[in-house]
Amino acid sequence: MSTIDRALTLQPRQRSLPPRERLERIFQIEDLDALYGGKHAIKGVTMDVYKNLVTAIIGPSGCGKSTFIRCLNRMNDLVPAFTQTGTIRYHGQDVTARDVDPVAVRRNIGMVFQRPNPFPKSIFENVAWGMKVLGLKDGLEDRVERALTQAALWDEVKDRLKASALSLSGGQQQRLCIARAIAVEPDVVLMDEPASALDPIATSAIEQLMHDLKGEYTFVIVTHNMQQAARVADMTAFFSISRGGEGERFGELVEYDSTEKIFTDPSDRRTEDYVTGRFG
Amino acid sequence: MSTHSLTKAALRAEGLPRRRAVNRLMELLAWLAAGIAVAILGVVVWSVARRGAGALNLDLITKVPVPFNFGNTPSGLANAFAGSLVIVGLATLMALPIGILVAVYINEFARPAIRTAVGLALDVLNGVPAIVIGIFVFGLFVVGHGQSGYAGAFALACLMLPLVARSTIEVLALVPNALREASLALGVPRWRTTLSIVLPQTLGGIVTGTVLAVARVAGETAPILFTSSVGVGTLVHWDPHHALQTVPVAIFELSESADPADHAQAWAAALVLLLFILVVNLVARTLAARSRSRIGAAR
Questions:
Q1: Pick from A73, A80, A115: which is nearest to B185 by CB?
Q2: CATH 1.10.10.10 for the B59-298 domain, yes or no
Q3: What is the pLDDT of residues B228-265, one digit of tens each?
């Protein structure tokens, strides 16, 4: 099936999730607060992320969606004046602990960013560099091909692997970034609005590959696009902006449930307003 | 009709002629200021070229000086050019790695408070007069050990350090954070990210900064007078364990000579120095433009 056909035929999928008790929890997040310079970006987030599912984080701008997923792989460590409290247990181990090496965390929890950020290297090197640095040197070329194939990019670039990654289109660059992220065989792939700068066809290619790859990886995707969440996600978390005393604004988790429930029968009024388009 | 007549009305607005005149005047003043800056350089280059061109020949860099010569035999300043080459080369070897490491530390690792403090220190070091650096190195190395090419190189390295560090900081800041994040998100350690992803992006900028710093210190006289000027002799030496003659010091000494041929040679040497700095600046600017466009393309 061509990419265009896929774009036209991609339907919200029927899913039957097993009961949550039977799902393996990959993240157990408890009472997570994240602060920039002492100001709360998110407050009191408690949720579990399940293995081999696609979990979508939706919500209006400024509700802390990106801040939240960047907590999961310690990406916020790089932000000056960032602090967080609460625990994030990954396979039972608290990754927020001081003695945990953020490099080891990120080694297992990869990330794809909002804007494509390929290295200014060749297409091949973009995928191969991380593997080489991390010591995955056996059968490098096969692994590169596999990662590019999984990211639905191989056919488009197989004849020009030595060309600069910057010569690719935006959608291709983003799929290259996905290939780069999955090439080092992470356990979880975090995606921070990966399709916000892409056209519908590239978007659908990325959604399709998440669907195809979730047997091997666990995806957490932040998205502005509710249709996208409805199409790709098994579980959906709705974040919203709340107001505290003295005009304080912070993001918090309003509702977290199966995508079907969130979009058809949400229990919270704010979720319903958001998913029906009355707010946000 | 409406917008057109509005524009016409606006053109006739009250006070407009005066505003236009002020605008013209300011433009003229700015143009004059720019003209003066260019003219000063022009006058310097022209006067040095006029006096130095006569004595400018290959002998200047291939022959050694002959004292009390009065223009009788071909002579030159080969020893000074050799000495300058050694001292400036050594200074670059000392200042470049430290300058780059300082910049990497400030831009990639330091907390904001430390960043400000070290940045301030670099600015102050940059503002320290060269002669003060000369006295400092004189007290540190020359007293008790005697002058040497190493001492001269160390003094010049002190002058180069803030220049190299500052220009490297500037290009490091241009590298988009998205690139660092891309590498770190793969689970690549910070140092490896800096070395393999960030620094290659800044290569052109670092070369530019270094080249400009070389151009700047190659003409420094004061620190060299204290550290590498006594008993330099007239022969070509390459060993920095001894004091080496340098171009700026040679110019300084020749200018005080009784022999008019020496004056001509001083002007010629000054012209060579000036041309060197001019060429190096042009090369540096070309390199900078290329590296900027490379980083721009990575965005």
A1: A73
A2: no
A3: 888 777 788 888 888 888 989 989 988 888 788 888 88
